[in-house]
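INFO batch 0412 | record 1 of 1 | parsing
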Amino acid sequence: MILLDAYALVALLGDEPPAAEVAALLDEGECAMTAVNLAEVVDVAGRTGRLEPGELRDLVGTLAVSGRLRVLTVAEDSAWRAGDLRGKHYANKSSELSLAACFLLGSAGPDDAIATADAPVARAARAEGIPIVALSSSSGRRPE
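INFO prediction complete | emitting tokens
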């Protein structure tokens, strides 16, 4: 399964550079996002004025009904893992890993990959042995 970080859905909504990549991922296979990352999407979409909450709910609902995106509830073991990962990989200014990103990483199973344009997320995923799908950022760069 491909786990999308919040930026992936924000980019799709805002028709940013990786929008086509994200759409292809949604079309090609099993994609999911944690409920925590969805909350981050709601926050960003609301603050940037990209979508009203009702429009976002409709879009995510459509993606879910079509089987293109699952929203994962966060289990207690994922929360413990997220907290551990945050402590292990967060470093102020050099690796600003959001708590939502840690929930994403903490929810990854052995056969999952993380789709991200965020360099700290990509570094932490690689350090934990989680494969990544490197998306282009809004500036066109991909995480190394």
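INFO post-check: The radius of gyration is 14 Å.
INFO record closed
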